[in-house]
């Protein structure tokens, strides 16, 4: 059975393709900026244009070779909808917390909205959500949010760690180290709680350094301005390093003495999951009201801290640096947890079962109709693209692209 996967985040679709025992998965995703080329797998097909119309045309050419469509991101769902497919939506990160169909959809830590769409555009994205044959997310927080809009929301907490890339046996990078070293491999910005980390570092009493990848959350002008202010008062322990290619990341995990993860969302991200299978001690804020499901039981991940209070984080950082027994015990507990939930041999079972169920229920990748209404929505989407989308894409995304490459992809 063949699945067409559109879009990818944190290599979720790549891991499905790699470890599924029952499905042949082909991935096509969107042109990537420099940072994404470093942090995501290169083993995927790339759309040759940023234009929605050309992406839909590409999908229409290949769709009949597949049994089902699986999409990650609103951009991917939009393409699948306009191509008339039966598609499953998978929500990762904050995609369901700031959906584009809500007016002035925004993050709780920002004053200005992430999305600022008009009524017709919001109605379009709500239709994209409603038309999906299934909607999936993980964690209690994201699942509760998704259930507000889809009563049939599916929860799968089993996300993949690629154990061929992330394990404790991978040789560390050959780099001199003069003091205790943390690695912070996530984006720099409020979204990941770097303001909390910076405040905690100024309170620390032990001697260490933090290697922070030079990668910034900057979706909006507000986030860029916040990052600028954080950089103006950067703690002395933070040293920026270039972006790390995904296939090299475990070498950096195994070089570091500990990992500094995110401190705002209250859940694990890809960085923390991958590092846990390298048996590294990880500091990552875990909200006890957002348990994970392991074999049907609610489990609070053993990561610390349980509160993103700056003073508590500073005390934990000092304890990690100064107490070998403490950090080894924490690393072992996090490793055991990661194996139970994120090892690919365990995670793939639930995903394969889910795909089988949807393929049995939906006999074709094509929806039952290609109605005049859908054709009109295609026309509307392409008009929006011509007069609005191209302009806003350039305003938001020119940063991070080479101008020549960007102009070519917008033709």
Give the structure's gist in a few sentences.
This protein is an alpha/beta fold and 411 residues long. The chain is 42% helix and 13% strand.
Give the class-level CATH name of the largest domain. Answer: Alpha Beta
**Helix count from the secondary structure assignment:** 15
Class derived from helix and strand content: alpha/beta
CATH A-level architecture of the largest domain = 3-Layer(aba) Sandwich
Care to describe what's here?
- There is one protein chain.
- With 411 residues, this protein is of the alpha/beta class.
- The chain is 42% helix and 13% strand.
- The protein is built from 15 helices and 14 strands.
- The chain has a 7-stranded parallel sheet with strand order 3-2-1-4-5-6-7, with helices on both faces. Strands 10-9-8-11-12 form a 5-stranded parallel sheet, with helices on both faces. Strands 13-14 form a two-stranded antiparallel sheet.
- Strand 2 (24-29), helix 2 (34-39) and strand 3 form a beta-alpha-beta unit.
- Helix 7 (194-203) packs across helix 11.
- The mean pLDDT is 88.
What topology does this entry show?
Layout: E1 2-6, H1 12-19, E2 24-29, H2 34-39, E3 45-46, H3 52-62, E4 68-72, H4 74-82, E5 87-91, H5 119-131, E6 134-137, H6 140-147, E7 154-155, E8 180-184, H7 194-203, E9 208-213, H8 221-232, E10 238-241, H9 249-255, E11 258-260, H10 270-276, E12 282-283, E13 292-294, E14 297-299, H11 310-322, H12 324-342, H13 344-361, H14 372-397, H15 403-409
Parallel strand pairs: 1-2, 1-4, 2-3, 4-5, 5-6, 6-7, 8-9, 8-11, 9-10, 11-12
Antiparallel strand pairs: 13-14
